[in-house]
Amino acid sequence: MPDELLRPTIGAGVDMSARPWRLVSQTYVAFFGGVIAATVIAFLNSRRLGVPSDRRRLILVVGAIGLVLAAVVITLLADETSSGIRVAIRLVAVLACLAQLRIQQPMDRAFQLRGSEYGSLWGPGIAAVIGLGLLEALLLAMVAAL
Amino acid sequence: MTEPAEARLQLAGHWLQIGHPERTLDELQGLWGDAVLDYRAYLFRGAALHALNRNAEAVGVLRDGLSHHGPFLPLLQVLGSSLRAEGNLPEAEAAYLRGLSLDPNDPDLLIGYAMVCLAAGQTEKAAALVERAASHAPESAAVSAARAQVAFAQGRHKDMHRHSQEALSYDPEDPGARALHGASSMLTGDSKSGYHSLASAASSHPGDRDLREAAREAKLINHPLLRPLRPLQRFNPLVVWVGAVAVIYGLRLAGLGPVAAIVAVGWFAFCVYSWVAPPLVRRWINRKWGS
Amino acid sequence: MTNDRISALRKAVEASPDDVLLRLVLAETLVAAGETEPALDQYVVLLDQQGLPDDQLVVVGELAAANGRLALLRSCLEAARQAGIVEGTGRLQQLADELIAERSGVKIKVGPEEDAPSAMDTPKETTTFDQVGGMDEIKRIIHRMVILPLSRPELYQKYGRKSGGGVMLYGPPGCGKTLLARATAGECGLPFVNVRIEDVMDPYLGVSERNLHAAFERARANAPCVLFLDELDALAFARHKHGGSESRRLVDVLLQELDAIGSENEGLLVLAATNAPWDVDEAMLRPGRFDRVIFVPPPDEPARADILSVLVKDVPSAGLDLQALANQTPMFSGADLRALVERGVDRVIDEALTSGGEPPLSMQQLTAALPTVKPSTLDWLHRVRSYIEFANQSERYDDVAAYLRSKDIRRRLS
Q: What mean pLDDT do residues C377-390 have?
């Protein structure tokens, strides 16, 4: 009697030596660095966690949508105060990050159940915030100038 | 089997049950003759090696035992667990499926397989497996603990809390159940009982660094100076930020500019406090205990 | 006619195997008809299905004993114990023992019914504190908490207290707890009865408990004396470590024996040692049992020098400055020092094999071996620190807490 539940479905093992980053730390990257920085960090972390490839692609898609939304926001709010624009763009980045964290959650929880140690996001995080944050600022400025 | 050999095997089992796996290995070293091929010798040695985290050796011993004795459920159970600890999930799955082909309703095997699925991120399948185990062993601490872990993996914190409470009610002394209860209490905002449970689990397993860290974090959060930071503990900080932004801009749009400004300043102070206060309080609390 | 009835019942039972009442009637009918073997078979199934009523357990057990069915007898005994039946279980246990004895040819000590072991069995212990190097602080503590009370029993009696009682030594492994216990007995001039866990544990049901009881009886017969339980955490393990009801019995027996000490035995001093105080059942540490708890720290410098001198006694050596070596090995346990000497001897042998001579062990090899040996006590101290940080222990572990807080140790542990 074939049993649907008891069929092998697991394709790959997990790398026990990987040191992913905490999800909470990624929120800072999104807050200070914007959509591109958050997406890159989330994508790298999902690789470390062993997230399946289709969901990894979803992270990139969410990031792309977020970037487009940020561009839309900056064109719509062209006449607002600069701080208002910054808050709006940050809001987009935060929402995109929340979605990307949601995608990483099952494997992150699986990692926590294993009881291994997280890695530190300081180095890559600051690099992403500065480098990719600047890139995003430039891109959005170009869009705004159009 | 001779009596001394039987006595040795029983003593090895006893050491394993009270958590001294090194003594188990010592006892088993002294076996000779037929006793070495007894399934219990393989099972205890494999389980002891697994308990000591020497999983590669455990896998070798258990596979040996299986080749001698055929598919024997306890051996497959420990083999699956060892393979999962190594990260070799496909083979862990194979071991559990082999056992389940003999007894599709064995609760321990089902729960073990569910843990493998959780490690692979397949949470719905794990939930279904645990439910099937529950239908065959409804009132068991192991099933409730497994349900709590599935709920944790799926981010359902309230359910995790409920299941961990059930697990504790079946076995109030089990440190694993205490740890789950402590974690779920922290996630649902009840940090007092969360600390109580985590401290109890940490003192039962004093060598476990994760439990100690978790207990210390709980003690930190319970400190009166850090009470204002509780919302950040329960909710994602980003969500809290979105809420603050919504409030501030909502006030501005409603024309209450000055109020909005006050709220904004308060929010800024709150952020600074959340950065500065925890490390200081942590240092103060742990001044007696070092790192 | 009875046969018809029996075959009818059998058919009915086959038709509905889960009906315990039916099976019970079948079993009783078989017994009445004198067919005990088949009846006992039915009783085995009934026990499995938990369909045997409590008042029948002893009767069935005795029937099983009469027919030599040890497994069934044991199951009945187990079920009776769990049901809380008091009368008759003793008799069942006795029957079980007799069956075991005739099967295995092993004589089981039965306890008080036997002749009491003669008091000449155990001579007085000869090791004294002088023979244990260093560790002055701990010797003082033991003297104050253990030896002094024993020497003035009338003082205790005046205030209505019993002297004797229990003392638990705890500390990192390999730091001389057993030796200290032995020396304490020597200081008091008492015989030393060592009860090791291998001597107590036995695979057969109920024998471990009897062995433990016999050990206590032996000590009582030799009273006043010192009874030493090594690895207390293996005998009296905490509830969370092993939930099964069967092995808890050993813990219960130990609790009973300790409680009996006050009334039945004057002057029986029970010492215990453990490497894992966090795994000892809480009930053991209540007043009247192991109410005195002493931390045995890693050996201090004079103790280490003493241990080293014993270790190198039989090894040809030259120019060894044991004081300096002791100075360079802080926090080393006795086992660590032995490992150090072994590594040094390995190097000497290597040299001997390559150079052809037979050089003596020198400081050079030992200091070269020093970096390869890490003290095993640090891990234990981390554990105990975690334990007292989170356990609700009041003053019981104050001495080890003070030890951990000392600047030197704090530095080493971080």
A: 89
Instruction: Give the domain C301-372 fold.
Output: Helicase, Ruva Protein; domain 3 (1.10.8)
**Are A31 and B238 an interchain contact pair (Cβ–Cβ within 8 Å)?**
yes
pLDDT of res. C246: 58
pLDDT at A99: 93
Quote the tokens at residue C181.
């216990």
Four-point Cα dihedral B13, B112, C279, B170, nearest 10: -110
Dist. CA B228–CA B281, nearest whole Å:
13
Taking CA–CA distances from A14, the nearest residue in chain B reads B87
Is A2 within 8 Å of chain B by CB?
A: no
Does residue C113 surpass a pLDDT of 50? no
Q: How far is the CA of A103 from the CAs of A62, A96, B212, B255, in angstroms? A: 10, 11, 29, 39
Instruction: Collect all residues of chain B within an 8 Å Cβ-Cβ radius of residue A6.
Output: 97, 100-101, 104, 113
Residue B90, H or E segment: helix B89-102
CA distances from C56 to A63, B124, C33, C88, C235 (A): 74, 49, 18, 11, 34
| Tens digits of residue pLDDT in C306-325 | 888 888 888 888 888 888 88
Per-residue pLDDT, C103: 67
The CATH number of B1-89 is: 1.25.40.10
Tell which phi-psi region holds residue B174, choosing left (phi > 0), alpha (psi between -120 and 50) or beta.
Answer: beta
Q: What is the pLDDT of residues B240-266, one digit of tens each?
A: 888 888 888 888 888 888 888 888 899
- Per-domain residue ranges of chain B: 1-89, 105-222, 228-291
Q: Domain C2-104 maps to which CATH number in 3.90.1170.20, 1.25.40.80, 3.50.50.60, 1.25.40.10?
A: 1.25.40.10
Q: Which of C390, C393, C409, C411 to mutate to test the interface with B (most CBs of B within 10 A)?
A: C390
Report the CATH superfamily, name and number, of domain B105-222: Tetratricopeptide repeat domain (1.25.40.10)
Distance from CA of B249 to the nearest CA of C (A): 45
% residues pLDDT > 70 (chain C): 86
Q: Is A94 on the interface with B (CB under 8 A)?
A: yes
CB C177 within 8 A of CB C296: yes
Q: What is the mean pLDDT of residues B159-172?
A: 92
Q: Is B284 on the interface with A (CB under 8 A)?
A: no
B123 touches chain A (CB under 8 A): yes
Looking at residue B34, what is its pLDDT? 80
CA atoms of C384 and B11, how far apart (whole Å): 27
What is the pTM for the complete model shown?
0.76
Under 8 Å between Cβ of B203 and C391: yes
CATH of domain C129-295: 3.40.50.300
Are B17 and C242 inside 8 Å of each other by CB? Answer: yes
CATH topology match: B1-89 vs B105-222 = yes
CA angle at C413 for the pair C408 and C414, rounded to the nearest 5°:
105
> B18-51: per-residue pLDDT in tens?
888 998 999 899 888 888 888 999 999 999 999 9
Highest averaged pLDDT of the listed ranges B20-24, B161-165, C25-29: B161-165
Chain B contact present for A95, CB below 8 A: yes
Q: Which residue has the higher pLDDT, C94 or A84?
A: A84
Tokens at residue B27, please? Answer: 């006892």
Query: Considering CB atoms only, which of B6, B7, B204 is closest to C240?
Result: B204
Query: Of B232-236, C264-268, C296-300, where does the model show the most confidence?
Result: C296-300
- Whether C391 sits inside 8 A of B17 (CB atoms) is no
Measure CB to CB from residue B171 to each of C243, C279, C385 and give the nearest one.
Answer: C243
Q: Give the CA dihedral C185, C186, C192, C194, nearest 10 degrees.
A: 80
pLDDT score for C240: 66
Of all residues in chain B, the one with the smallest CA distance to C391 is B203
Contact B121 A106 (CB under 8 A): yes
Residue of A nearest to B95 (CA): A8
